[in-house]
Structures are given as structure tokens and as C-alpha cells.
Design a protein that fits this description.
Layout: H1 35-50, E1 66-69, E2 76-77, E3 80-81, E4 86-87, H2 91-98, H3 100-107, E5 113-116, E6 120-121, E7 124-125, H4 130-140, E8 146-149, H5 153-159, H6 167-177, H7 186-196, H8 202-218, H9 242-255, E9 257-261, E10 276-279, H10 303-308, E11 313-316, H11 329-338, E12 341-347, H12 368-378, E13 383-388, H13 396-400, E14 406-409, H14 417-425, H15 442-447, H16 467-470, E15 488-494, E16 498-500, E17 516-518, H17 521-524, E18 528-537, E19 543-552, E20 564-573, E21 578-586, H18 587-590, E22 592-594, E23 600-603, E24 605-611, E25 614-621
Parallel strand pairs: 1-5, 4-6, 5-8, 10-11, 10-12, 12-13, 13-14, 16-25
Antiparallel strand pairs: 2-3, 6-7, 9-14, 15-18, 17-23, 18-21, 19-20, 19-24, 22-23, 24-25
Helix pairs in contact: 1-3, 4-6, 5-6, 6-7, 9-14, 11-12
Length: 622
């Protein structure tokens, strides 16, 4: 696209904010609610964009950008917008939830850029916070690249947040804090005045310019004829190739999550099913499938197109649009009653959740619930409910409805989403996706303020906490949940039961009872070990299985997570095949907790490792 003159080489992606609240409109852009998952995603995403085929670490293929730094996850909720919102975040939550993805982007991904967010954090705009930018990003994490504002962030600081009296003061605050690039024209018009007024030194401006131009140099902008560079011959012929279109389909297949599957429901046999009713406002959509911030698709395959390619199909939208203020119940029920099987494709779209638009409800819009229930009541064959959405939905009514045999969440599956859905429904592909976020009941949205940034529950106020790590209330589906057409069993083959940490005689914990110890290189060297899990496919279908290794740490400090992800790996297994999955557990990273002051420490005592229902106890002693 760059070679064709249609794009640059700096991409403000990925979004690595934590999907804290299910109502956040931009949660669809993120990998989910867990810091470990998000960190691994961030590293792989960044390296995939940036790393060159020739292995030159000093050069960039494309410059990635991890955004939006930091604690950004409120866009516009009940009159509270991102331009005015100040996120009140504890040191504990900052260290163990909001910051890890950005740290990993920089330290382990070597990302070329970080974007500061619109919101304030604890009263200070992130783009003008020297502690967040200069001290942490540059000082602690050693960013090799530039720091950018979000678009018009400095104008927001001036006009919406009233951070300073003059535009020149805003420009100076941002540059002095460590900002290198402004998306917009605020620095263009106000930097000279700030320098002339003595608010910012010219050397600070030089630093910003140098960081920007260094990135361009690493991208090869000054290396002569682009056609003679490593990727100079790529062009339109390399876009939309059959291999790339198949990759889009495979990505969609891997991402689809099977949430419910009663016996004799899925997969459907295209030779046995003579007629199929496809019903719902998302059954024949195109742009809905690509969500926020997508490129131009090669082509679309809608759910209707994918399903009708194999079976004679009758289609009813059921609703005029996704809002479903009124539903065509009779038409939908007539189609369902006459068909051998029914696929309902429901959910939402960017009119419900998007950048600048948070949800106030986690229920399906309008009359979708009633449409699903009434259609299911008259169906004579299997009923499959498909949810297309960026965030989770309260579909507890469908989960309990015995007439609904299967439920699939397809997320926002991209251009080939309909083809991928058909592959799973007709049994050509065994689903293996897992939920990257908790699905809460509607009561959660009715009682929890989205502006409460506290990850941990507070019994005094009734706040139930957020995400599977801290939330103890009722869920519709849990983080990591996902079924397959094949059952898999797992067993812990290797894991230590006791790890002893040697301490110097003069260490404070040598003569007193300690529940945690400070992390340092000496102690961490004794805390690495392997966990080996045996996984076996005991079903009749070939399929993939994601081994999720969790740990429940001892409750050594207030508000320790009840459970947290350690690592994960996906394996593919033929029927009756088994494999060993090895995890390298780093004690200082995976068995640590964060105290109230934001200090990460190794937790002493009993840690319980989990893989599904299999548990293994491990004790850390000094």
C-alpha cells in the first residue's frame, strides 16, 4: 500500500488497553481483559509489523504504536466523555493491570511508538505527565522511538480540560513531559511561541524532532529509491492473493467461540439438512463484520452467503436494523417452522458500540431476545444462535433455553466471517476459540458505574470488581470459556511441589515471618521451573485445544487476585492423539503479586496451579 502511494509506514496500532468494562465501545479493538494475554498479543503484534525478513534489528518494516497510554477505557458513557474524564487509579491497579501491556510493548516488543491517551489519570492529562512519559516510558522502559499524542489531544488539554491558561503553556507542558509528535496542528502553531517565551528549551524540541526522524531513518525513508529496498517490489498484486484470503478465513475460524452445544445440535450435516432458515439483523451484513479501524476488504462473505453455499436457504432479517425496535415475528417464525434447522445471527454493530460510543446495557438490543425465543419455540430442528458483537452480551435466557441447541460467538470476524461460520456449522472445522473477556449479566450494567476504575471489589460500596481476576459475582460466561466438538482431557505430568528460596543471613526475612519478598536477580534465579501438561483428544474430531495455565496465589496482601493467567498455548490433535505442553514458569513474573503501594513482590506460601479442573499445589518457602 505504501509502494502504491496509498499509505505510510507508521501505523498507530495495536490498541493494548485492558478491556476492563464490557460496555466500552472500543473494547472490540483490544485482545481482552487479561494483562498476560494482552502483553503476549502486544509483543507478537508489534514484532509482526516491525521485524524485517533480513533480521536487521535496527531497521523497521512498519513502525507500530502501542496505544492508548494509559488507563483509557471510557469513551462516552452517560454524559462522561474521554475528553473530560479523569481516571482515578490506585498504584496497585496501575502496576498489575493497566501498565503491563505497555511495558511489554516497549521492553519485549521494542515498539517504535507509544501514543498517550485523551483522558487524565489521577487529575493529570497523560500527554502532559512527565512522570508517565519521561520517567516511565523513556527512563524505566527505554523506549527506542517516539511518543505521540492522540489526535488533537493537546487541543483537548487546552479547550476541554483547561490544563493551562495559554496554548503555549500546553505545548511546553507536553514537550517537557516527553511528547515528540502531535497528531494535529497544535504544536505547529504554538511551539515557537513557547520557545520564545522561555517555557520550553530549544534542545527539548530538538529531542522530539530527532526521535521522529530516527524512526523515519529506521524505516528507510532516506535510503534512496524505495523500489531498490527490501520490500520495494511489493504492490497491488500482493494484496488479496488467495493465500491472504484463506488467512482471513482461518483467523475467523480460530476466533469463533462455541459457547453451548447440546447433543444432536452441531455440527449440521449439509447432506441431511434439506432446508435452512437464516434469520436475524446480522445475517447478511458486510461492514459490521470488520468493526472499527479496518482496511478495505478484498471481498465479503456474509453469514447468509456462507451458509447458503451448501444448503437451500430461506432468509428473514427479523428486524429492520440492529436496534430491532420492532420485529417481524410472524415472517421469522414461518420460515423457522418450515426449515430443518435454524441459524439466528444476532448481536450489535457500530451503532451500539464504537469509538466515542459506550453501551449502557449488555443485553441484546431492542426485541432481539423475544425474536430469538419465539423463533426457537416453533422450530422443528436444531436452533443455532450466533452472536456477532465486539463485547459480551447477557444471553443467559438463551443459555438456559433447551430449544436453543448451540450458541456461537463470532466476535467481529472480518471479511471471511460468513465462510468461517459455515465451516464450523457444517463440521468442516472444529471450533477452538476461547472468550478473551468475562460476559456479565445485565444486573452488572445496571448497578456498576463505568467510571469506577477500581479493578478490585469494595464490600463497603458494593463495587463487585472487574474481570475474572477480581470479580466474584454471577457471570453468563467466564473468561477463557470455549467448547469444542471433541472433548479433551489434561493431566499435570511435571511440576514442583516445593520451591525453596535461599536468603542471606542478614536478610530481613531470615529472622522474621515474611509473607512476601522483594524481587531481585538473585532470588529470581531460583524461581524458574517447568510445568508439563499432557493433553489428549478423546473425541472423534480433529481439533485444536488451548491449554490455559492459571495460578491462585496465597492471599498475602490485601486484594490479591483470586486467580490469574500464567501462560497459554494452543495445540492441534487428531482423534485419540496426545501431546505434552511445556510451560516455562518464571516465579518473579508469574508467581508475584502487587501490594497497595504498587510494588511487585514474590508471594510466599501455597500457590495453586489450574488447568481446567486439574489443580496442583506448589509451596514457595524461604
Amino acid at each position: 500500500m505504501y509502494n502504491a502511494g496509498l499509505a505510510g509506514l507508521t501505523y498507530w496500532s495495536p490498541n493494548v488497553n485492558i478491556f476492563r468494562d464490557p460496555r466500552w465501545g472500543r473494547g472490540q479493538e483490544t485482545p481482552g481483559e487479561d494483562p498476560i494475554l494482552t502483553s503476549k498479543y502486544a509483543i507478537d503484534y508489534v514484532q509482526g509489523l516491525q521485524e524485517r525478513d533480513d533480521g536487521d534489528k535496527n531497521r523497521l518494516k512498519v513502525a507500530a504504536c502501542c496505544k492508548h497510554y494509559t488507563a483509557y477505557d471510557v469513551d462516552n458513557w452517560k454524559g462522561v466523555d474521554r475528553y473530560h474524564f479523569s481516571a482515578t487509579v490506585t498504584k496497585q491497579d496501575m502496576e498489575d493491570t493497566f501498565q503491563p501491556p505497555f511495558r511489554n510493548c516497549i521492553v519485549n516488543g521494542n515498539v517504535a511508538s507509544v501514543m498517550c491517551s485523551y483522558n487524565k489519570v489521577n487529575g493529570k492529562p497523560t500527554c502532559g505527565d512527565r512522570d508517565l512519559l519521561e520517567r516511565v516510558i523513556r527512563g524505566e522502559w527505554k523506549l527506542n522511538g517516539y511518543i505521540s499524542s492522540d489526535c488533537d489531544s493537546l487541543d483537548v488539554m487546552f479547550r476541554s480540560q483547561h490544563w493551562a491558561q495559554t496554548p503555549e503553556e500546553i505545548a511546553a507542558d507536553a514537550l517537557n513531559a516527553g511528547l515528540d509528535l502531535n497528531c494535529g496542528d497544535f504544536l505547529k502553531f504554538n511551539t515557537l511561541g513557547a520557545v520564545q517565551g522561555g517555557l520550553v528549551k530549544e534542545t527539548v524540541v530538538d529531542r522530539a524532532v530527532s526521535n521522529n526522524f530516527a524512526t523515519l531513518m529506521r524505516l528507510g525513508y532516506f535510503d534512496g529509491n524505495p523500489r531498490k529496498q527490501l520490500y520495494g517490489n511489493l504492490g497491488p498484486k500482493d494484496v488479496c492473493s488467495p493465500a491472504h484470503q484463506e488467512l482471513a478465513r482461518e483467523a475467523a475460524r480460530q476466533g469463533i467461540v462455541l459457547l453451548k452445544n447440546r447433543p444432536s445440535s452441531l455440527p449440521l450435516s449439509p447432506t441431511s439438512i434439506k432446508s435452512l432458515a437464516v434469520i436475524g439483523p446480522n445475517a447478511n451484513v458486510t461492514t459490521t463484520m470488520i468493526g472499527n479501524y479496518a482496511g478495505i476488504p478484498c471481498k465479503y462473505t456474509t453469514p447468509l452467503q456462507g451458509l447458503s453455499a451448501s444448503v437451500k436457504t430461506v432468509y428473514q432479517s427479523g428486524c429492520r436494523n440492529i436496534g430491532c425496535a420492532t420485529a417481524q415475528f410472524n415472517r421469522a417464525k414461518k420460515a423457522a417452522a418450515a426449515a430443518d434447522a435454524v441459524v439466528l445471527v444476532m448481536g450489535d454493530d457500530l451503532s451500539e458500540e464504537a469509538e466515542g460510543r459506550d453501551r449502557t446495557s449488555v443485553s441484546l438490543p431492542g426485541q432481539q431476545n423475544r425474536l430469538i425465543t419465539e423463533v426457537a419455540s416453533v422450530a422443528k430442528g436444531p436452533v443455532i444462535l450466533v452472536i456477532m458483537s465486539g463485547g459480551g452480551m447477557d444471553i443467559g435466557f438463551a443459555k438456559k433455553n433447551t430449544k436453543i441447541g448451540s450458541i456461537l460467538w463470532v466476535g467481529l470476524p472480518g471479511e471471511a466471517g460468513g465462510a468461517a461460520l459455515a465451516d464450523i456449522i457444517y463440521g468442516r472445522y472444529n471450533p477452538s476459540g476461547r472468550l478473551p473477556m468475562t460476559w456479565y449479566p445485565q444486573s452488572f450494567a445496571d448497578t456498576v458505574s463505568m467510571t469506577n476504575m477500581n479493578m478490585r471489589p469494595n464490600p463497603a460500596t458494593g463495587h463487585p470488581g472487574y474481570t475474572y481476576r477480581f470479580y466474584k459475582g454471577e457471570t453468563v460466561y467466564q473468561f477463557g470459556y470455549g467448547l469444542s466438538f471433541s472433548p479433551f482431557i489434561q493431566q499435570v505430568v511435571q511440576a514442583p511441589k516445593l520451591i525453596q528460596i535461599p536468603l542471606d543471613e542478614n536478610h530481613v526475612c531470615s529472622s522474621s515471618e515474611c509473607q512476601t519478598i522483594e524481587m531481585d536477580d538473585h532470588h529470581c534465579g531460583h524461581l524458574g521451573f517447568n510445568v508439563v501438561i499432557r493433553v489428549k483428544n478423546v473425541g472423534k474430531f480433529e481439533g485444536s485445544y488451548t491449554v490455559l495455565l492459571f495460578s491462585s496465589p496465597p492471599q498475602v496482601t490485601p486484594d490479591v487476585p483470586q486467580i490469574q493467567l500464567v501462560d497459554f498455548e494452543k495445540v492441534s490433535l487428531a482423534p485419540q492423539q496426545e501431546r505434552l505442553v511445556r510451560f516455562n514458569v518464571e516465579g518473579c513474573r508469574h508467581l508475584s503479586v502487587v501490594d497497595e503501594d504498587g510494588n511487585r513482590k514474590v508471594a510466599l506460601g501455597e500457590h495453586v496451579l489450574h488447568v481446567e479442573d486439574v489443580k496442583h499445589s506448589l509451596t514457595l518457602k524461604i
